[in-house]
Automatic annotation (TrEMBL):
Residues of the Penicillin-binding protein transpeptidase domain: 317-580
Membrane spanning stretches: 12-35
Record-linked Pfam families: Transgly, Transpeptidase
Protein name: Penicillin-binding protein
GO CC terms of this entry: outer membrane-bounded periplasmic space
Limits of the Glycosyl transferase family domain: 54-227
Keyword Cytoplasm included in the entry's annotation: no
Keyword DNA repair: no
Gene Ontology process terms (BP): cell wall organization; peptidoglycan biosynthetic process; proteolysis; regulation of cell shape
Entry keywords, A to Z: Carboxypeptidase, Cell membrane, Cell shape, Cell wall biogenesis/degradation, Glycosyltransferase, Hydrolase, Membrane, Multifunctional enzyme, Peptidoglycan synthesis, Protease, Transferase, Transmembrane, Transmembrane helix
Molecular function as annotated in GO: penicillin binding; peptidoglycan glycosyltransferase activity; serine-type D-Ala-D-Ala carboxypeptidase activity
Family under the similarity heading: In the N-terminal section; belongs to the glycosyltransferase 51 family.
Superkingdom as given in the UniProt entry: Bacteria
Length: 703
């Protein structure tokens, strides 16, 4: 009999063992089927920082920053364990004792004081399952929880849980919640702050202090009491901490609106140059080091979004500022009332007007070696196969130096010069600066384009002058680090030699004159500045583009074709551009690169109208002393002519002098004379002086 009982017992034991092993294997197999470890990789907030590592903003689809468990204080961990799963370190994924206790307390208190699901079960539910409530889903939750306990250590499970759970108001994970509710990182949380966060996952919309402060405090105090019950806090500590208030104002976790235009272009560059889509950026927990200067970005936002900046209600505006050394975008504004993902005027093409002249005409002409800043250009209203551009003033000089044409933005010489060097020469230089034009007409000289240029393109092209003739594409992203802090990508802009440093320097000097003496005088710059204004027909588009020793940029303002209200000019963007410039480290002037020639200041020609001739007779004959008042510029040549009937006969030429002696003159007829100033830069004569007659005076004798 006893043998039979032993046999039955052994059989039952074997059956139970087989059943246990079968169940265990079933759990493991189910886990292998149900658990995709990719689901445990959480969507994580990407942080944008400046070059010094200071945070600018955060980008996310779910606001989450993962942290290691060792960065979360013990008292914060204890708060969650106390309220969610006090036997967390003792059970194997499910806790029948806690389930029974939770049911009992819920019945007694008529509230959800404690949860029945373990922390592991909650992780299983949040990571792998849908929110539906059914026996099958609950069974799956239990099986997955058991499998998670088999695969991971307790601390790993707690870390995943604390980084995943939702705390309300868009905050996922304990780090994001800490920033949202308290404006600090999780390692800085006090005991009662950690308890408040632990109070939220059960019902973020119920217990948020921003929604219901009274209910939120009751829930927070419950967590503190449970911590006391489980010996994490003394009674005295508990009472003291329960008396503390809750936060009343949430801290910002979204992008500063002043950065919106910049961030949109940064995200586009992340995909085009660094191979990360916007979705990957918003969920990948990257750290992006941007070229932005926070102060310049914020200042430009305030100015470009202010109604006081725009004299016409329907006007729009855009601004781009680049670092001369690197080409990084320091600041960008995409519109007066820019909206995320909306039309970004910084990357929208507009007609450039006369800002096109330096990059499309004058720099290419200088680069040919056939022209210099004082070469005379034809200033006449000419017809080019039906294209007859005119000067805005309606006046023409016949000839004008390149320097004067640039300074005063005269149209006719620019078109004539482009016709002389050829459109292909112009387009070749523009092409090296990422400006590809389909047009082949001379209207390129005046910015008459089919589509136009963007402020980003314009700023980059003008930076070529500042960078001694070398172009590189502007960029927003300096470096990209993954969620583990490993550098995975960085800016590597390619450089292109567009023009010689000599050409770039000549352009700097001529465009400095635009600002000091020409069309760009509006406003006051805090630094040495070279640049060019631009205005299109009917002032639909007005520009200023330029550079200081440290930065280059472009500012565009304009209005729609259907709007004809108000009168605007390029003086407006010029003054605004100067107001937005940072102060320069170079207080006086641009620094000429070594090994190139300086551009002389223009010769100041003045008319001579006081020529005086005095004949003096001596023992050896008569001399005629000529005197006149000059301009004070010692570089001017003066040509001395004798008037002989309808023709003048050149006697001599002097440099910088304002007197001349005609030797051996006819004592009975000293003759008539004129002086003509001559500009050696332009190789051009000025107007003849008054005619002075030399007559013999018997009372005037030489010694």
């Amino acid at each position: 009999m006893w043998i039979k009982r032993i046999t039955v017992g052994i059989v039952l034991l074997l059956l139970l063992s087989i059943a246990g092993v079968t169940v265990y294997l079933g759990i493991i197999l189910f886990g292998n089927y149900a658990i995709d470890e990719k689901d445990l990789v959480m969507k994580e907030t990407t942080t944008v920082v400046d070059s010094s590592g200071e945070e600018l903003t955060r980008l996310f689809s779910e606001n989450r920053e993962s942290v290691d468990l060792n960065e979360i204080p013990d008292h914060v961990q204890e708060a969650f364990i106390a309220v969610e799963d006090q036997r967390f370190y003792d059970h194997t994924g499910i806790d029948f004792r806690s389930i029974g206790r939770a049911l009992y307390r819920d019945i007694i208190t008529r509230s959800a004081a404690e949860g029945g699901s373990t922390i592991t079960q909650q992780l299983a539910k949040n990571a792998f399952l849908s929110p539906e409530k059914s026996i099958l889903r609950k069974t799956e939750e239990v099986l997955i929880a058991l499998n998670l306990e088999h695969r991971y250590e307790k601390d790993e499970i707690l870390e995943m849980y604390l980084n995943r759970i939702y705390f309300g108001h868009g905050a996922h994970g304990v780090q994001a919640a800490s920033r949202l509710y308290f404006g600090k990182t999780v390692d800085e949380l006090s005991i009662e702050e950690g308890a408040m966060l632990a109070a939220l996952p059960k019902g973020p919309n119920l217990y948020s202090p921003f929604i219901d402060e009274e209910r939120g405090k009751e829930r927070r105090d419950l967590v503190l009491r449970l911590m006391n019950d489980q010996d994490y806090l003394s009674a005295e500590e508990t009472v003291r901490l329960q008396g503390r208030t809750l936060p009343s104002e949430r801290h910002s976790v979204s992008s500063n609106e002043a950065y919106d235009a910049y961030i949109d272009l940064l995200l586009l560059e992340m995909e085009e140059k660094h191979g990360l889509t916007e979705e990957e950026v918003l969920e990948g927990g990257y750290t992006i080091q941007a070229a932005m200067d926070e102060e310049l970005q914020s200042q430009s936002y305030e100015k470009m979004s202010s109604d006081e900046t725009y004299p016409v209600q329907a006007m729009e505006g855009s601004y781009v500022l680049l670092d001369n050394d690197s080409g990084g975008v320091l600041a960008v504004q995409g519109g007066r009332n820019y909206e995320k993902k909306g039309l970004n005027y910084a990357s929208a093409k507009r007609q450039p007007g006369s800002t096109m002249k330096p990059i499309a005409v004058y720099a290419p002409a200088l680069e040919t070696g056939e022209y210099d800043p004082y070469t005379l250009l034809v200033d006449e209203e000419l017809d080019y196969d039906g294209y007859s551009p005119g000067n805005m003033s309606g006046e023409y000089e016949g000839e004008i130096s390149m320097y004067e044409a640039v300074k005063d933005s005269v149209n006719a010489p620019a078109v004539w010069l482009l016709n002389e060097i050829g459109v292909d020469e112009s387009k070749a230089m523009l092409g090296k600066q990422n400006i590809a034009l389909e047009e082949d007409g001379l209207s390129i000289a005046l910015g008459g384009l089919d589509e136009g240029l963007t402020p980003l393109q314009m700023a980059a092209a003008y930076r070529t002058f500042a960078n001694n003739g070398v172009y590189s594409d502007p960029y927003f992203v300096e470096k990209v680090y993954d969620r583990h802090g490993e550098l995975i990508s960085e800016a590597e802009p390619e450089s292109e030699v567009v023009m010689t440093p000599q050409t770039a320097w000549y352009m700097t000097r001529m465009l400095e004159a635009v600002v000091t003496d020409g069309t760009g005088q509006a406003g006051t710059a805090p630094a040495p500045l070279a640049g060019k204004t631009g205005t299109t027909s009917e002032a639909r588009d007005v520009w200023f583009a330029g550079w200081t020793p440290e930065v280059s940029g472009a500012l565009w303002m304009g209005r729609g074709a259907e709007d004809d209200s108000g009168d605007i000019s390029s003086a407006l963007p010029t003054a605004v551009f100067k107001e937005l410039l940072p102060a320069s480290g170079s207080e006086t002037a641009f620094e000429k690169p070594e090994g190139i020639e300086e551009m002389d200041e223009p010769v100041e020609m003045t008319a001579v109208d006081d020529l005086d001739a005095d004949m003096k007779v001596g023992l050896f004959g008569a001399n005629v002393e000529l005197e006149w008042t000059g301009s004070g510029d010692s570089r001017i040549h003066y040509r001395i002519y004798m008037v002989e009937g309808d023709e003048n006969s050149l006697i001599d030429e002097v440099v910088g002098q304002t007197n001349y002696t005609v030797s051996r003159a006819n004592v009975f007829s000293g003759g008539e004379y004129v002086v003509v100033p001559y500009n050696p830069q332009t190789r051009q004569e000025g107007e003849p002086s008054n005619t002075a007659s030399a007559e013999w005076n018997i009372f005037s004798r030489g010694s």
